[in-house]
Each structure stands twice: as C-alpha cells, then as structure tokens.
C-alpha cells in the first residue's frame, strides 16, 4: 500500500465513537445486490490504494462476496474468519469488542475465554445491521494494520449508505 510519509496516523477511536459508528451505519435492507455493490466498492477502494487485502461479506451464515487482491495471502482469509466469528458472537464490530476489553485494562485473548485460533477481536469486521431486524451478517477486511482494516470498512459503509 502506498503511504504518505507526512501523513499522521489515525487517532484511535474511543469505545463511544465505535459504538456511535454502529448506531449510524444501519441498512434499510441487505440483499445479494447490496452485498455485491458494497464488496465492489471495497475492491475499488483497495485498488486505488494498492491495499493488499482480502474482503468478505457474509449474511446469515452464507458468503455473499469474497475478493482477494494482490498481496493478500491465505492468512488473510483465516483472519477474516476469526474476526467475523467475533461479530457473529457479540453482535458488534471486532475492533469495538477488542477496545472494550482494552478499556477494562485487559485483552480479549486474556479475558474472553475463547480460543484465539477461532476468534480474533482485531479490527476489520463490522456488523451488517438492518433496521428493525438487527445484526444479520458482517463485512470484513484483512490485510492492513487492524485500525486501518476497521477504518476502511467504516469508510466504505459511510459512502455506500450515503448513496442510498
């Protein structure tokens, strides 16, 4: 990924900011068409940024979209599965779940009592929430540092939902 050496790193969002993202980024509906369009938007963003990521969208246990861009590896798919399982279990973004543990002075790995080979509370998986229904799936990115994975998904969701 190309980077600007003069660019300052993104500030780490607070738990409250992460919770506000989830309240704001809600769909009216989420079909195969929305999955394709959101996934395609993430692919476009990744190509423009030369981001070596894999992208995954799941709904109700079914993979609706997957793409692997140059530089991504099979490990990215393993990370996607682990981060997505956190969203499926907790109903919240994987980054938010990890941030809540860190805010308590511990880590997800130390305190969740879940197998770290199965679950990863690292940034990059965000719940797909539908108004009046709740969390029905997850959109996940893997390949960048965890905050950048999270922010890429949030940016795509913001753009996608603003255009609807």
From TrEMBL:
Domain of life: Bacteria
SUPFAM superfamilies xrefs: GlcG-like
InterPro entries given in the database record: PduO/GlcC-like (IPR005624), PduO/GlcC-like_sf (IPR038084), YBR137W-like (IPR010371)
One Pfam family it belongs to: HbpS-like
Protein family: Belongs to the UPF0303 family.
Protein name: UPF0303 protein CP969_15310
Lineage: Bacteria, Bacillati, Actinomycetota, Actinomycetes, Kitasatosporales
């Amino acid at each position: 990924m190309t980077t600007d050496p003069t660019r300052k790193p993104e500030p780490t969002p607070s738990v409250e900011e992460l919770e506000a993202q989830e309240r704001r980024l809600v769909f009216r509906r989420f079909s195969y068409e929305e999955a394709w369009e959101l996934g395609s938007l993430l692919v476009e963003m990744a190509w423009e940024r030369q981001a070596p990521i894999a992208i995954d969208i799941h709904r109700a246990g079914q993979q609706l979209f997957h793409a692997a861009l140059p530089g991504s590896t099979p490990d990215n798919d393993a990370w996607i599965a682990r981060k997505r399982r956190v969203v499926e279990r907790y109903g919240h973004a994987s980054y938010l779940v990890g941030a809540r543990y860190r805010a308590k002075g511990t880590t997800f790995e130390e305190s969740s009592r879940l197998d770290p080979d199965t679950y990863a509370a690292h940034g990059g998986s965000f719940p797909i929430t539908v108004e009046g229904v709740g969390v029905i799936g997850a959109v996940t990115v893997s390949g960048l540092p965890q905050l950048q994975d999270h922010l890429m998904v949030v940016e795509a969701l913001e753009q996608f939902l603003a255009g609807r």
